[in-house]
Structure formats: structure tokens, C-alpha cells
């Protein structure tokens, strides 16, 4: 008969380890985002690349859960668009910061605005 208490303890430890890894990843993501200068942007994938692991979706998850204290509007989709729920606030900030925009006025010109640290 397997040791159920031992298996439960292993699951708890794995869950805590995963939580710690996500916390570490979150801190790394938020640190990168905090360093993006005004008028510049990165895609979710760019941030993951700079952190060294994870991917665009995981960066998006961090930003959705914990990104309110950093310049969240400077992280967007690779095509220069922003998630619809954030569009109005982001576009206003792009105008304030002089972020290069595409002709449509709602997408950032990634060729000109992408930050290279």
C-alpha cells in the first residue's frame, strides 16, 4: 500500500516549488518591464526572451495578475496592438510619452518603438 501521507507531502512541496518559481519569474518580468523607458515598448515575447525562460503567454499572465505597479502599457502584442480592455488607457499614455504609432492610431510602430536594452 503506498504511503498516502508521503505522496501528499510530495505534492505540497511540488506545488510550493512551482509557486516559488512563478514568483521568481514574476519578479524578473516586472523588473524588465520597470526598466522600459518612456516612449519605448517590448512585446510579451521580448520580455520572455530577456528573462531567459517562459513565453509570451506566461508573461501576459504575470502582467494580468501583478503588472499594475509597472508601466504595463509598454508591453504589448508583437504586432503592436494592445488587448482591447486596455486600449483606451494605453493609447493615452503612448501619446503622452511620444511612442511612435502606426497610421491607424491604435497600434504602436514596433519597428520604431521596440526597446533594445
Kindly list the characteristics that best describe this protein.
single chain; 117 residues; mainly alpha; Arc Repressor Mutant, subunit A; 5 helices; 2 strands; 3% strand
Walk me through this protein's architecture.
The protein has one domain: Arc Repressor Mutant, subunit A (Orthogonal Bundle). It has 117 residues and is mainly α. Helix 1 (4-35) crosses helix 2 (44-51), helix 1 (4-35) packs across helix 3 and helix 2 packs across helix 3. The longest helix has 32 residues, at 4-35. The chain contains five helices and two strands, in the order αβααβαα. Strands 1-2 form a two-stranded parallel sheet. The protein has helices at 4-35, 44-51, 56-66, 87-97, 110-113, and strands spanning 42-43, 75-76. It is elongated and about 45 Å long. The chain is 56% helix and 3% strand.
Instruction: Compute the number of helices.
Output: 5
Helix residue percentage: 55-70%
| Sheet with most strands: strand arrangement | 1-2
Percent of sequence in beta strands: under 5%
Task: Please indicate the count of domains.
Answer: 1
Could you say what the CATH topology is called? Arc Repressor Mutant, subunit A
Mean pLDDT: 88
Alpha carbon gyration radius: 18 Å
User: Helix/strand/pairing class, anyone?
Assistant: mainly alpha
Major sheet, described briefly? 2 strands, parallel
How many runs of DSSP E, i.e. beta strands?
A: 2
pLDDT < 50 stretches: 7-12
What form results from the Cα inertia axes? elongated
CATH class type: Mainly Alpha
* Amino-to-carboxy terminus distance: 56 Å
What is the CATH homologous superfamily assignment?
Answer: Winged helix-like DNA-binding domain superfamily/Winged helix DNA-binding domain
H-E string: HEHHEHH
In the CATH hierarchy, the architecture is: Orthogonal Bundle
